[in-house]
Amino acid sequence: MRSYQFLLLFNLALVACPEVLAENTIQISIEQMTSLGVKLGKMDVVSEFPVLSVPAKVVIPPSQEYVVSAAQAGFIEKLNVAIGDKVVKGQLLALLNSPDLLVLQQEYLKADNALQLVSATYQRDKKLLQEGVISDRRWQETSSQFHSAVSETEKQKQLLEITGMSAGEVAQFGKIHSLSRQLSVRTPITGVVIERLAVVGTHIDMMAPLYRVANLEQLWLEMAIPQERIGNLKIGDRVELENSKVSAKISLLGQSVNLENQTILARAVVDQQNSAILRVGQRLNTRVIQLSDKATFKVPNAAIAQNEGRAFIFIRKPDGFAVVPVTVIGKQDLESIIHGDFKGDEEIAVNGAVALKANWLGLGSEQ
Length: 367
Description:
There is one protein chain. With 367 residues, the chain is an alpha+beta fold. The protein has helices spanning 2-16, 30-36, 99-131, 136-162, 167-176, 272-275, 353-360, and strands at residues 20-22, 25-27, 39-42, 44-59, 65-69, 74-79, 86-87, 92-97, 182-186, 191-196, 203-204, 209-214, 219-226, 238-241, 247-257, 263-270, 283-300, 305-307, 310-317, 320-332, 335-339, 347-351. Helix 3 (99-131) packs antiparallel against helix 4 (136-162). 25% of the residues are buried.
């Protein structure tokens, strides 16, 4: 009795639906296609595809960021730049009134005067040694004193240069001997002022930070990738910003997992031209794009039917459709990226895949 009921239902399905010719082929007329809402279209051949969408933060590479500090303690008389200002290497950022600078200047003059005295003795004894008037021991003592004076003067000179004085300014100071308590603070790089860390009219200690300056010619995008998805990425993958032409390339995939959210750091380098469009600290939506190493196509999501965990598309044939399995490797809005053995000029059902699936399986309808 059960066998009879099964055969009866099967025959009724064949009458109500297009004929099932084989496991991977269905026959359907144009009229039936129209009634089922089936529409035809083409696959788009693509050379790259998105593998992951993830938020990213714009950051400054550590090697391009500097904290400008006061080389000596003092009173801040003037701050010349503000946050966002562009500065060039050597530009004056601040002026300090520093009594400690006077001490350094005095020590330099003292060392320079001592060097001049010992230099005269050095030249005299050098001549006397050549004439055989003095002993070698006398010459060694004079030579030692001379080189010690040279070292001390060079040390004091470098201490003045650390305060912000250039080599030329130190040389000029050595000639005119004009002491000054005004300490100039200059930027070591060309860049942009990211942060101001001091206030006019306050006293600061030695090495207290005044400004944070950064070279923004190259920026990074830092992304927190779920650890289960990190295997989908590789060095060199392109990163696109949502609703923007800006792109970057992945340069690092981290080796450690964040214990709080179980993500792994991925870093992408933005080139100089695109860096000018971004702003440090921005949070942006990005997509990771990979180049395809095999035939890859883009189809509407509505063109794909799922059955028993596999994906299929329907390719138009003269008397119906061929049911062809595909591998879905990514999704982008209303479209899917697939792999398959296609030429790219096949005509497929871009709408009505659910109805075709029902007929393919002999169900008559499908959710």
